[in-house]
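step 4 of 6: structure.
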Amino acid sequence: MTALVPTPERLELREAVRKSLQRHPGPRGFLAEQPSGKWFDASLLEDLNRQLGLAELLVPIGCGGAGGQLADAAIVFEELGAALAPVPLFATVALATSALVASGGEAAATLLGRIARGEATVALADARCGLPDDHRFVAVPRAGGGWLVSGRSGVVIEGAGADVLLVTAETGDGVTLFAVEADASGVQRRPLRTLDLTRGIAEVVLDGARAEQTGASGGGRAAADLAWDVGSVLLAAEQVGGAQRVLDTAVEYAKQRVQFDQKIGSFQQISSKLVDLLLDVEMARSALATAVDAADEHWEDRGEDTRLALLREASLAKALCSDSYMHVADEGLHVVGGIGFTWEHDAHLYFRRAKSTQQLLGSPDSHRERLAKAAGL
Amino acid sequence: MSVSPATTAPSLDEFKAEAAAFLDRVAEPRTEAASSAGERQLSLFRGSTVADADAARAWQRTVFDAGFGWIDGPVEEGGRGLPSRYVGAYLQVERRYSTPQKSALGVSLGMVAPTLVQFGTAEAKGRWAEALYRGDAIGCQLFSEPGAGSDLAAVATKAVRDSDGWVVDGQKVWTSGAHYSDVGLLLARTSTGPRHRNLTAFLVDMHAPGVEVRPLRQMTGGADFNEVFLDGVRIPDSHRLGEVDEGWGVAMATLMYERSAIGGGVGGGSGLFRMDTLAQWLREIGRSEDPLVRQAYARVHTGVSAAKTMRARAEAGVKAGRPPGPEMSLSKLALVANLAALADLVSDALGPRLVADTGAAETFGWTEYVLGTPGMRLGGGTDEVQRNIIAKRVLGLPVK
C-alpha cells in the first residue's frame, strides 16, 4: 500500500501547494454571496497551474500531461480543502480528466491536451451529481457531422466558468459522453446560489448545442461512473484536509482561550471532544488512504477486479469522510464558541463546505448502501 | 528441555518449513468448516476454566519443546534466540492449523512474561521465565484494587520489608485467570513517598500461604475474573521486579504490552468482524434486505476497515523510522466504537430474537456479545482515561 505513509516527494508537493496557497488571499475575497459566477481566484488558479502544473497532474504523459498518480492528486486536494482554496480544479482534475481518460479516443486525448496546457477548464454534467429528475440530455446527429445536444442539468459543479462542458446524453446507442464548448450557441448557464460559498455550482441548459463525441457510443455511463468514483476519493481528500484544519484550529484555540480562570483545553468536556475529533480525522485519513490505493491500482491496470475494489473503497471513504468532516466542522465550531457563529470567523465556511460535500456525489447513506451491495449483502 | 539452542539461525523459509513439519505432526490443517459461522465465538469475555488452562498448558509445552514457544527469547534463559520477525513467521504458519485455544495463557505470555524478562533478577528469571514460556507456570496480573481503578497509583496493598524479603497485605480485583495461575505480577505500596515513587513490583507465588482467590461474577453472568486477597504473604527480595519504589515504571511497561494486545487482537482475532461471515449470517436469518440493517452493516464495515488501515499506517510509520504515535490508544477507541456499531447491527438484525430465546440458531447467543461490550470500554484503561492520555500527549492540551 502506497498511500499509507506519504513519500518524501509527496511531502514536498504538499509543501509547495501550501506555499502557493499562502501567497494568495484565501477565500474571503471571493465568497459567492451573489450568484455571479465570479467565485474563484483567477490569479491563484494560474499560479497553481503554471508553477505546480496541477491541471496536468492526472493527464497521461501521452496526452501531454504529468501522468501523476491519484496519491499525488489526493495530497493536492487535501491542501486545497484545508485552505478552502477558491479555484475550479475539482471539476477539471478530479471529474473531467477521469471521465476523459476512461473514455479514450482521439477527441478525448485532444481535450486532455488542452487541460494539460491550462487552455481549458472542463466541468462534467451528469445525472449522478443531482437528483435523477434533475438531469436529462439527448443527442442527435448533426447534418454535416458532429452532434446536437439538448436538455438540462440542475447541478453542475464548477460549471459556470468552465470553458468546456462534458455531458452524458442519450443517443440511439445508449448514454454517450459529449464535449460542448461553453461559448457555442445554444448553451445557457445560470450560476446558482450555493450553500458552500467557496465553490460554484451552475444549472446548464443546452438547446441544440453543437457537441463532439468524446468516447465510444454507449460508453458514457461507464466513463462518468469512473469519474464519480475517482471524484468521490478526491472529494474525500478535500474533506480530510478540511477536517484536519478545523481540528488544528480548535486545538490551538483550546490552548489559548481562558474562561473560569483556566485554559478551556484543561476541561475534560473540551479535551475529550477534541480527542473524538482526532479519532474522526485519523479514521477518515485511513479510509482515504485505502481508497487512494484502490484508485491508483485501477488507474494502472483498468481491470474489472480493481474497478470493483475502487467502487467499494470509494464509497466507504466518501461515506466515512463525509460524516467525519461534518462532525468535526460542527463540534470544532462549538469549541470555538460564540465567535465561531459569526460571519467573520471561518468556522462557517468549513461547516458549509462539510455539509455541501457530504451531499454532493452521493449522500453517506447512499454510499453505505452501495458498499453493502459491493460487499455481497 | 529437549531442543538445543540453534547455533546458526535458519532462514525464514527454513524456519517456516520446520514449523510446518512440526505442526503437520501434532495438529490438523484448518478447514473451512472448522472456521465457519457455526463455531463463532460470540462472547467478548470467555474466561478460561481450569480444564481450558490445562489444555493450553499441554499445547504450549508441545510447542515449546519443539522450539517454537519462546522464539525471540535469549538462549541463556531458555529462548530460541531468533529475531522477533520469526515469531510472526511462526504465527503465520500456525494459523493454517487447527490448534487448541490458548486464551488462558494470554495475560501470562502477553504481559507477565515480557515484564519479567525486562525487569526480573537473574534468580527470578531462572525460576519463572522458561516455566512461563513452557506453560509449566501461568502468570496473572495483580494491579487493580477496589480503591485503585483508573487511578492505579492509588494502590493500597502494602509490602513491608521483613529480614530477607517482604510481607504483603491487601486486596486485588478484576484478576483474569487467578484461579489457575501459579504466579502473580503484583504492584504494592512500599513507602510513604510521593505519588508514582512509592510503589514496587513483585512476582508473588499464587500458591503461597495467605493468597486467597475468589471468583467475581460479571454482568454477562459468567465469572471470568477474580478477587485476590493477600494476607501476610511472603515474597523473597529476589522476586522483586525493578528497584524499590520504582514499580510505577514497571506497571507502565506492562500496560503498554496490554494495550497493544487489546488494540490488536480482540475482535479481529475472534473473527467477529469478518464482514463476509456477517453478511452470510444476515442472509441466513432473513434480514439482509432491510435497508436499516444494510446501513448498520455498512457502518460496521466502514469502521472496521478504517481501523485496520489506521493500524497499518501506524506500523508503516514506525517502519519508516517515525516514533510510535498515538495509534495504540486511538486504536482502542476505534475498537470500542466498532464493537458498539456491531452491537447496533446485531440488535437491528435480531430485534425480539435478541430479547427472548426462541431456540433459533445464531440468534439469542448474541446476548453474550451485547452484554460484554461495556466491559471492553473498561478493560485495559477506560475510554475516559485513554482520552485524557491522548489529549495530553498527542494534542498537547493542558489536561490536569
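step 5 of 6: annotate
 - DSSP finds ten helices and nine strands in chain A.
 - The first strand of chain A starts at residue 122 and ends at 125.
step 6 of 6: archive
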